[in-house]
């Protein structure tokens, strides 16, 4: 039997049932934490606000999981999905398609940077990464390089939970799932707060780029298929690399015949104040993955866009892509994504993300007076990270299991703000968030930090 709710003393039957029957996805929460705290069961949402079965409202400071870009409660997306489902929900993903999927492919080709104009559909971000890996590996073989199977990714990155994607994800637990995919190596990631080389500013970013070349040379360019990275890595703490970093990585990949995969699963569709974060860097990857904001979560959908030179070898006789996903190009998901993109464009949400992101950073920056706020990063759209430390001098992190971190996560939630607190506190609200809502979010973080710092005063130096 589920434990009692710590807030109200009474647990709603849906909350009890969730504890009894649902297996929640998890990267960090232990089962006893779920049973003790209960699983939040939300019944409705509007804009940046979510309401749970207890009737309590929360400010969704994380847009679900960095994705409800157009905000909750968009009935017009629901209507587009219902209309499509009533007419035709599904067509087989090989040998056939449907107008909704064709239209979406055309839209994606037109809004992605450069000549990324061929689109392969799937159901989410991990599948998109898995697909990108398979495209890169097969493309290298088709180009006449059968030994190019290795993939270089960055330490601390997150690319998903399927086997290939997990193999590129630093937090994936090798003790359970290893050995991972062969041929993966990890290189340092741009980080101006704790730079691996002790360098400051752009020099640190550039050293990370040059490290990519060193790794390609160490592995042997004749063995390397691709380099993959998030243009801005939320998992790695939202460090903003300089354009020179990505431009240098682009040049290095070209020099060695290595394909560049940009994973825009979080950063795509306005999150960073550009439709795609690659635009900030003036770089066109060979392969781009996307999901999350593609439908703002209204339907499970992901996609991979590639350039003509990647696609062309697949058009030769006997070279068809060896990859088929039943739900790739799902008509209802495509209808949801098209309506979502229409809203992003119609309401200028990309520009709004840029503007509100600057406001969020300005307010978050004021939290630096806290002894536990080591750094505040963001300002490129609505992607903000507050780096939490035990000591500003040593920049020592608390560790995700520390009661300070767990307590802060719980307290912000009790105060009505949904966020994610690991080594950094993430804020990535819907792009429709208003100024008063941004102010409210920062007020909650501010007061919760003060309370926690009081409670853990002895642990802070
Ligand atoms: N790539 C990046 C950069 C992500 O942040 C995520 C998820 O957070 C994924 C891939 C995996 O996406 P999904 O959870 O939809 O499988």
Q: What distinguishing features does this structure have?
A:
5-stranded antiparallel beta sheet; 7-stranded mixed beta sheet; 16 helices; about 450 residues; Aspartate Aminotransferase, domain 2; binds pyridoxal-5'-phosphate; Aspartate Aminotransferase, domain 1
Record the strand order, biggest sheet.
4-10-9-8-7-5-6
Shape designation: globular
**What is the CATH superfamily classification of the largest domain?**
Type I PLP-dependent aspartate aminotransferase-like (Major domain)
State the helical fraction. Answer: 25-40%
CATH class of the largest domain: Alpha Beta
Q: How many discrete domains?
A: 2
What is the CA-based Rg, rounded?
Answer: 22 Å
Q: Predict the CATH topology of the largest domain.
A: Aspartate Aminotransferase, domain 2
Known CATH architecture of the largest domain:
3-Layer(aba) Sandwich
What percent strand?
15-25%
| pLDDT < 50 runs, ≥5 residues | 1-6
* Counted beta strands: 16
Overall mean pLDDT score?
Answer: 96
| Structure classification | alpha/beta
Alpha plus pi helix count: 16
Give the cofactors and ligands: pyridoxal-5'-phosphate
Task: Note the topology.
Layout: H1 13-21, H2 31-37, E1 42-46, E2 49-52, E3 57-60, H3 63-66, H4 75-87, H5 99-111, E4 118-122, H6 125-142, E5 150-154, H7 163-167, H8 174-177, E6 184-187, H9 201-219, E7 224-229, H10 243-256, E8 259-263, H11 278-281, E9 287-290, E10 302-306, H12 308-311, H13 331-346, H14 349-365, E11 373-379, E12 381-391, E13 396-397, H15 403-414, E14 417-418, E15 420-421, E16 424-427, H16 435-455
Parallel strand pairs: 3-14, 5-6, 5-7, 7-8, 8-9
Antiparallel strand pairs: 1-2, 2-3, 4-10, 9-10, 11-12, 12-13, 12-16, 15-16
